[in-house]
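WARN retry 2 of 3 for item q-0093 after timeout on previous attempt; input resubmitted unchanged.
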Amino acid sequence: MSSSSKDWRLSKQLGSLLGEEEYVRRRIEQASRSYGRMYSLWLRRQAIPEKIRLRLYNAIVLLYNCETWGPTAAIMNRLDTFHRKQLRALLGIRYPEIISNEDLYERTNSTPLSGIVTRRRLRMTGHVCNTTPLLNWPCQATSQKMHQELEDVLNPLLRQLSRRISP
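OK item q-0093 returned
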């Protein structure tokens, strides 16, 4: 594939890059710059309590509009890796010191970003499914039947996925 055929991925539509991977990479870069500006706060571990630093970290808008993303496994892995790296920096954990991912999430009372993105996407799917009867279908009876069929299929799947994702 030539580079010109990939140029559309770098074009912006309403402030967002069209390519999914490029968009998420850009969001990570922006969040990283924001975290960099607050690096002096991360260094003041004795002056600023861990709870406050975590609230500041969570205030950064990395996952804005993630309900509309179509992330691949590689993108989700990149998000989780970035998240863990930032949490470790926030806590002051460096290389010789080792902490497992589970312990890290427990200590910071957080979850992997991939789980948050999945939950938000499922919630958005639920909203879309709930609005289906409001759409202007040619025959209301057909739309109600289709809505019921969608609920019958999606509700068990959504419950199963939410149980898998819930910490």
